[in-house]
Specification:
Blueprint: E1 15-22, H1 38-54, H2 58-63, E2 86-96, E3 101-104
Antiparallel strand pairs: 1-2, 2-3
Length: about 100
């Protein structure tokens, strides 16, 4: 059983979507590793693409007056990425209610 970055296991994920992104040079630090803050940008890519695939583009959600603020975030780093690596971003929705969405990466 695979564990997600949040510590939840894959059996609890209601919806899941996979997308890829290639690490750009501007996202790396002086040592050649992806700067830690960039991983949250990758998570945003995954979240945006999952929403587009399962529901509609986030821009359409906003047109209806709905906002999805990020109220909590965290990340545990198991391995780093380097320039030109192809990253597979697996995004899952583990909580889906009228008031809350929880995305796991």
């Amino acid at each position: 059983m695979r564990r997600l970055a949040s510590g939840w296991n894959e059996n609890r994920v209601a919806h899941e979507f996979t997308t890829t992104v290639r690490v750009r040079y501007a996202e790396t630090d002086a040592m050649g590793w992806v700067y830690y803050g960039c991983y949250f940008v990758y998570f945003e890519i995954g979240r945006t693409e999952l929403m587009r695939e399962l529901w509609c583009p986030y821009s359409e959600i906003e047109k209806n007056g709905v906002r999805l603020p990020v109220v909590s975030t965290g990340c545990r780093f198991w391995a780093g990425a380097r320039y030109d690596d192809l990253l597979r971003i697996v995004t899952g929705v583990s909580v889906l209610s009228a008031y809350r969405l929880r995305f796991d990466y």
